[in-house]
Amino acid sequence: MTENLELFSAPGHDGKAQAAIEIEALREQLNRWAHEYYVRDAPSVPDAEYDRAFLRLQALEAEHPELVTPDSPTQRVLGAVMEGLAPVRHAVPMLSIRTETDTEASGAEAFDARIRRELKLTPDDPPVEYVVEPKFDGLAMSLRYEQGKLVQAATRGDGEVGEDVTHNIRTIRQIPLALPADAPPVLEVRGEVYMARADFDALNERQRAQGGKTFVNPRNAAAGAVRQLDSGIAAQRPLSFFAYGLGEVQGAQFATHHAVLQQLKLWGFPVAAQAGIALGASELIAFHQRIGAARDALPYDIDGVVYKVNSLALQQQLGFVTREPRWAVAHKYPAQEMATRVEAIDVQVGRTGKLTPVARLAPVFVGGVTVTNATLHNLFEIRKKGVRVGDTAIVRRAGDVIPEVVGVVPGQRAGYVPNFRMPAQCPVCGSAVVREKGEANHRCTGGLFCPAQRKEAILHFAARRAMDIEGLGDKLVDQLVDQGVIRTLPDLYRMGLTALITLERMAEKSAQNVLAALEKSKRTTLPRFLFGLGIRHVGEATAKDLARHFGGLDAIMDATVEQLLQVNDVGPVVAEAIHTFFAQPHNREVVEQLRACGVAWEEGAPAERATLPLAGKTVVLTGTLPTLSRDAAKDLLEAAGAKVAGSVSKKTHYVVAGEEAGSKLAKAQELGVPVLDEAGMLTLLAGSTPAGQQP
Ligand code: IVH
Fold first, then answer.
1. What average pLDDT does the segment 489-495 reach?
2. CA 206 to centroid of chain Cα atoms
């Protein structure tokens, strides 16, 4: 400090010298904090502290404008509006990569075989070392640093000449404006600018609220942001960056691509955590599978993985064919978004009577399967996305999620096509269709009368987590309802062997199995039965809460809305739904008939939640307990009024840990949450359970 002071202490410049020192310190600190926050995802200071330092720096810079430098953290948005984007000739061309779309094994094997052939390796030679990285679905960017300062950011363009987008790229917090002192004098960092899914969703939400245009996917949103002329607009479109290579470099040398990635990380650039070294084809395949399995959980879109020969000397030896290096290949995953034609818009009726518009599509291979239908969610989504019959729509299918139409390709509509309208009558049963105030969804009022709801109601009743009737799947329910064997739930328990074996493709043995499963299902629990009724808003947890609170079914059926509101986690909407359900005579009749058919459960005494031994307590289970299964332990705890949670926080009252307990146990110890073993848990349950309330 003192030394620095002297350095700047020219006579009469004390204030300025002081300011310069403080400014330097603030910048250094703000850059470090920004790196922790935006790149490493591990902030070490509260946001308020960052903001305070930032404001202080702004104030100092306002006082001493001559000390403002372009790499100051305050200068990310320069407010400049460009007239156009200037062309930039790349010092080292930006290449593209050859794509493999083959299946897992053959894509990787073909690449490895090619490399070995090019390098004239024999089967006796050791496996080639590769680096595998995700293939990010964004746009390529070249960042040029001179003397450690970001001087230019350029798009790929045609690979030779791109566009200068420095003003927008500066707004990306993950991209350092200045590099550490050990960075070489000239450094071009190549990587991908992208938009994280959550940022994309939030952006579209904001755009919608402001009546602005929404974006079809994160890639398009990112590309639009990067090419803005006004950096103020780009700054409002949250972009991110991953570094994956180098362009021109003066004053530094590397032996491997992996070393390049490590060094980029040290210089402050985000590098994908999944990147790693793979030996030979078998490990390439393993990487492809591992990253593929993690794909849907990643916060950003990837469309494949990239295999790169690790040794830079070997890369040089392998060279290029036209615009593509021989040493790298992109091995794709099935696309999650594809364009296809909307042939028609139909309406489906769900179990609860919800009407869902569904786009019938020209078959398209997306997300690994052929898709012919995609949900349009509701009328408002259709209007928002502007989908009409005949349009070319973008269909998305990621993981196990139902395929959906995310938007339409603009400017493809040939002539006038009328807007889609919701039918006034249920397409299945003809009952009136209504939309509740403030609700986005239209509903059929047909209830159990509507065959669509009947089928779904039966399937839901039979589900594993409800009555658990094995063998009663959708095909069988379709037949039973279509043939008129079953109209309401009690009919299930009334049908005989003859009715079943007359169905198509039903052998006597399977018919007997179904009857046995039905018989077995009669002995159930109140929560399962309640859940099985398919009352709107009553899921498993609410069913359990209701059973625990009231003890028996009659009390629930006769409860007023006020009484229902006393139940843990039951709010006005849920209470209203339950009350309305049991106010319908035909629903009460169904319940009575089911009971008459022999469906039974043990009823308990009504319990005020607060009097249960573990009421209001949150417990987390981890590891393997010596005698109790995870489910059994959960049941015991819940019966005692505890809430069983999945993760440990300050609000956790107890952690019950068994063998091989991992991070949850560590977290409990870190937070000082009491840890019990199975015996401890049982003591807690027994010891504090008042007589007569034993679960
Ligand atoms: S390396 C010489 N690595 O894919 C190889 N590219 O066709 C140069 N991309 O537009 C590219 N993720 O933007 C490389 N981990 C990754 C990548 C990646 C995405 C993009 C890149 C380029 C395209 C190549």
1. 94
2. 19
Smallest CA-to-CA distance from 552 within 508, 498, 595 is with 595
Q: Among 302-306, 457-461, 638-642, name the one with the lowest average pLDDT.
A: 638-642
- Other CB atoms within 10 Å distance of the CB of residue 249: 18
Q: Which residues pair with 444 in a beta bridge?
A: 433
- Backbone dihedral angles phi then psi of residue 187, each to the nearest 5 degrees: -145, 120
At 449, the pLDDT band (50, 70, 90 cuts) reads low
Spacing, Cα 92 to ligand 1 middle (Å)? 15
- Distance in angstroms (rounded) separating the CA atoms of residues 446 and 465: 26
* Cα separation, 231 vs 234, whole angstroms: 5
* Helix or strand (DSSP H, E) at 30: helix 14-34
Q: How far is the CA of 516 from the centre of ligand 1 (A)?
A: 59
Cα maximum dimension of the chain:
108
Contact 274 CB / ligand 1 (< 6 Å) = no
* Residue in 16, 135, 149, 520 annotated catalytic: 135
Distance from C-alpha of 559 to C-alpha of 535, rounded to nearest angstrom: 15
Looking at this protein, which amino acid is placed at residue 572? Answer: P
- Ligand 1 centroid–CA 523 distance in Å is 60
Q: Of all atoms in ligand 1, which is nearest to the CA of residue 94?
A: 8
Provide CB contacts within 8 A for 305, sequence distance 6+. 132, 133, 134, 135, 287, 288, 291, 292, 330, 331, 333
Give the span between the Cα atoms of 12 and 4, in whole angstroms: 16
Q: What angle do CA 54, 60, 62 make, to 5 degrees?
A: 100
Confirm whether 135 is a catalytic residue.
Answer: yes
For every residue of 115-133, DSSP letters joined together read HHHHTT--TTSPPPEEEEE
Q: How far apart are CA 29 and CA 23, in angstroms?
A: 10
Name the burial class of residue 305, with classes exposed (0-12), middle (13-18) and buried (19+) by CB atoms within 10 angstroms of its CB: buried
Alpha-carbon torsion (249, 252, 255, 257), positive or negative: negative
- What are residue 373's DSSP bridge partners? 360
Can you give the pLDDT at residue 1?
Answer: 39
**3-class DSSP assignment, residue 82:** coil
Assess whether the C-beta atom of 140 lies below 6 angstroms from ligand 1. yes
Q: Is the pLDDT of residue 658 over 80?
A: yes
User: Rounded to the nearest 10 degrees, what angle do helices 572-583 and 585-596 cross at?
Assistant: 70
- The answer to whether residues 111 and 318 touch, using CB atoms and an 8 Å cutoff, is no
Q: Distances from the Cα of 603 to the Cαs of 524, 526, 552, 575, 607, in angstroms?
A: 11, 7, 5, 21, 12
